[in-house]
Amino acid sequence: MSKLTIRDVAREAGVSIATASYVLNNKPGKVSSATRDRVLLVAEQLGYRLHPGARQLRGISHTLLILLPGHKWAPDLRGILMDYPFFNELLAGIEHAAFDAKLQPSLQRIERPEDIRHLLNGPTPSGVLILGKHDEGVLQALEALDAPVALIDDRDYFSQHPMSRFHDYSIDDALLGELAAEHLLSLGHRRLVLLFGTLSASSVHRDRLNGVRRALSRHGLSLDSDWLIETDVTLAGVTQIEPQLLAQLQQGATAILAMADILAIGCFKLLFQTDYGIPEHVSLLGIDNLHVLNYLPLRLTTVGQDVYGRGYQVVRLLQGHGSELAPVSLIPGDTTGPSPTTPR
Questions:
Q1: Rounded to whole angstroms, how far apart are CA atoms 59 and 146?
Q2: 321-330 residue pLDDT tens
Q3: Distance between CA atoms of 84 and 107, rounded to whole angstroms?
Q4: 240: buried, middle or exposed (CB in 10 Å: 19+, 13-18, 0-12)?
Q5: How do residues 242-255 score in pLDDT, each as one tens digit?
Q6: 3-class DSSP string for 12-54
Q7: pLDDT score of 58
Q8: Which of 35, 41, 136, 265 has its CA 20 to 30 A from that of 161?
Q9: What is the b/e burial string over 16-47, where b = at least 16 CB atoms within 10 angstroms of the residue's CB?
Q10: 97, 139, 50, 109: which is closest to 319 by C-alpha?
């Protein structure tokens, strides 16, 4: 006979795993009394018991599980672990905190909800960090895991599942986009190129776009759809859209706002190869303040978040400590200047 799990209770009661978890862990609020009664009745009928010492009985490992997206969202993991320094910096902070807490980080690539089953029946990890985009079914399956879980930068999931027990580890990305756009607008730029990741797949980039809209509105401007270019957020992302980007510059754009530093680095290379002066012909601005920027010939102007610190603090959050992050801010560099008075 297979082991009875909270998933069975949720299915029979017609509720989500998150709702069943709230009820069976006796958490207040968020669930109506009728739903609470139904879940408890089904649990009693099935003979399900949430033992108060279940985690101790099953055994808690010292593993810190870090889940990477499957093939659907990341066909080539180089897009995350090689070509996107953001995750390298985040993982460095995670590893540092894990070392301090005597935890053992373990990276696993998750393809299907079925891949979660062994986690439910094996030793309980000390915590789980979810990086990148995952199918909703995978995340729902993790709701039944008796361990603290943090979902990094995926507001879409929480908007669809407000009763999720996961920690929402996001920052104010709209503020990052707003600060970046405001800087260029304050320098007199009125014709921008906006480089984004795929907006339909990224709540982070949609929030940053909302911030850009706020800044434009303050200056009496609206977003021209021709300004916006979507591409992969990797080193190769700019190569894919070179013709579009150069066409925008030839039509009079005076500044490029890249919604990630990695895209700005790609733009830096392209502008250098095509003899566009930075910033005398084109201003260039990124977001994230990655450590790799220290190795560029010019210091990129960027809006900074503490990526390494976020990695460190999310581990502390899983251990029940407070999470304190440095505020986001504009970090002036050498790649932005006043809008040129005459086109190139």
A1: 11
A2: 877 777 899 9
A3: 17
A4: middle
A5: 999 999 999 999 99
A6: HHCCCHHHHHHHHCCCCCCCCHHHHHHHHHHHHHHCCCCCCCH
A7: 44
A8: 41
A9: bbbbbbbbbeeeeeebeeebbebbbebbeeee
A10: 97
Q: What is the pLDDT of residues 51-98, one digit of tens each?
A: 444 444 344 578 899 998 876 655 555 556 666 788 889 999 999 999
With CA atoms as reference, report the closest residue to 127 among 309, 321, 319: 319
Distance of CA 307 to the CA centre of its chain: 11
What's the DSSP call for residue 333? -
The one-letter amino acid code at 116 reads I
State the amino acid at position 199 in one-letter form: L
Cβ neighbours for 40, distance < 8 A, ≥ 6 positions apart: 23, 24
Task: Give pLDDT, residue 26.
Answer: 67
Cβ neighbours of 145 (radius 10 Å):
19
Q: Give the β-pairing of 167-169 and 149-152.
A: parallel
DSSP assignment of 242-302 equals HHHHHHHHHTT--EEEESSHHHHHHHHHHHHHTT--TTTT-EEEEEE--GGGGGSSSPPEE
Instruction: Give the position of tokens 């754009």.
Output: 253
Structure tokens at 44: 């009693």
Q: Can you give the pTM of this predicted structure?
A: 0.78
Distance CA 184, CA 178 (A): 10
How many angstroms separate the Cα of 141 from the Cα of each of 74, 112, 119, 136, 149? 20, 10, 10, 9, 12
Domains of the chain by range and CATH?
1-50 (1.10.260.40), 58-169 (3.40.50.2300), 173-306+322-331 (3.40.50.2300)
Cα 121 to Cα 5: distance, rounded to the nearest angstrom: 9
Number of other CB atoms surrounding residue 186 within 10 Å: 12
